[in-house]
Amino acid sequence: MEPGFDVPKAALVEPLLTEPLALITRDRTDRGIEVDPMVELDSLETIAILVGEGLGVSLVPCWRGLERFAPRLHVSQPLPAEYDRRRCLIYPNKNRNDPLWSAFRGLVSDCAAILGADRHRDVG
Questions:
Q1: pTM here?
Q2: Which of 19, 78, 84, 103 is 20 to 30 A from residue 64's alpha carbon, by CA?
């Protein structure tokens, strides 16, 4: 998998998992909205609350807990797989054979596999 950005030659990229995205809006009305991001927020709960209050729309990962905001939001079906957000581990190439890095990569890969098996494309 190619990342969406240039990675220095001194780094390696290991794909871990993908997350389906959904569009959340205050209602089901499609207004042909053009997205012009004004801010970036890290808290999915904050994003859902702001959208529920009528302050914009957002693309968010399909996450457990989103359904509790459903009475105030319209959550689209997951977008097609080509829009999935990809999660990767990026680490220094020079350390790839170091036992500590190998153990860390193994742990992160195992966690990603568990999370990936737990994900579903059935939101909305």
A1: 0.56
A2: 103
